[in-house]
Design goal:
290 residues, Rossmann fold, 2 domains, 12 helices, 12% strand, elongated, binds NADP nicotinamide-adenine-dinucleotide phosphate
Length: 290
């Protein structure tokens, strides 16, 4: 397979990150497709805004494309891979989701049934709308072909060699710190508020931990709308820790923290304040205690 321009590439599905992956591939000179079957108006709007070709069904997408990128909620990564296999896709499949190495290997195994070639991916950074912000880590025997697809685009790539699970492990290690420490900070502040000590804690932070109050505000507002998706990601990190002989407890707790915030998915941005997020953590802990 040639690794120059003009490949036909599928992105399932164009969410906030997926559409930036699609845009990077278009910038690099490829034709990018998606399928509108079962997707929301928001995905259709994004696909339309960037002129992705709508294959309408997954079967048509699999027939048309020689590469497919999976960029979906981590909890759905295996389900999406099974659906692709049922469509007899036999090109290169790049799973870009925040999943454990074990889930990645299961995806690879599922895909081998239809003769597809698995490349492990892990995205670090926000959707790639500016140069230098976002890196797609890649590993596996066919990873170099995927790296070549992004030449000249806003998406950076980093190769981690031939191992089929290295990119997923990298993503788990990175996101474990960013999202795991965020969950810990939110639940510690909720505990302080439970004791009526939120303001006193902020005053102590200002003296000895400058920047922590700013981080609390930014993670409350930034993570709350995505908390529903982080539940699956924390489960994947807990499993990765356990498989590596490390204690998964911190990430099992983070699952509960993000579950308590899951309803913010549909809240208007102006309703997502640090006070509202902390209230949701305190009221969930009261409900589970009663
Ligand atoms: N956003 C980021 O900053 C970021 C950073 C690094 C890595 N990532 C990774 O990128 C992936 C996607 O994140 P995102 O921010 O693009 O999420 P998102 O904005 O929520 O988009 C998810 C996409 O998947 C689709 N989807 C929803 N439920 C699905 C299901 N049950 N089966 C198949 N597809 C489904 C959605 O379609 P509908 O809405 O039409 O149903 C949407 O197109 C995740 O694995 C995440 O870890 C994201």
């Amino acid at each position: 397979m040639s690794t120059t321009k003009n490949h036909v590439i599928g992105v399932v599905h164009p969410g906030l990150m997926g559409i930036s992956v699609a845009n990077a591939l278009i910038e690099a000179g490829h034709r990018v497709c998606w399928c509108s079957e079962n997707r929301s108006a928001a995905s259709a709007q994004r696909a339309g805004d960037y002129s992705l070709h709508d294959c309408e069904t997954l079967a048509a997408l699999c027939n048309e494309c020689d590469f497919i990128f999976s960029v979906c909620p981590p909890a759905e990564a295996l389900v999406v891979a099974r659906a692709i296999t049922e469509c007899s896709f036999n090109g290169v499949y790049v799973d870009c989701n925040a999943v454990s190495p074990a889930t990645g290997k299961s995806v690879a195994q599922v895909l081998s049934a239809s003769g597809a070639h698995y490349v492990d991916g892990g995205i670090i950074g926000p959707p790639a709308w500016s140069a230098g912000t976002t890196r797609l880590y890649l590993s596996g025997p066919r990873a170099a072909e995927v790296t070549a697809l992004f030449e000249g685009s806003l998406m950076g790539t980093v190769s981690l060699g031939e191992a089929v699970d290295a990119a997923s492990a990298m993503k788990m290690a990175y996101a474990g710190w960013t999202k795991g420490s965020a969950a810990l900070l939110l639940s510690l502040f909720a505990m302080a508020e439970h004791h009526g000590l939120g303001e006193a804690l902020k005053q102590e932070w200002a003296l000895s931990q400058p920047g922590l109050e700013k981080r609390l505000n930014s993670i409350a507002q930034g993570n709350a709308p995505k908390a529903w998706r982080f539940i699956g990601e924390m489960q994947q990190i807990a499993a990765t820790m356990e498989d590596a002989g490390q204690h998964p407890g911190a990430f099992e707790s983070a699952v509960d923290v993000y579950a308590a915030m899951a309803d913010f998915k549909s809240s208007p941005a102006h309703d997502i304040t640090v006070e509202a997020v902390i209230r949701s953590l305190i009221s969930t802990s009261k409900q589970s205690a009663s």
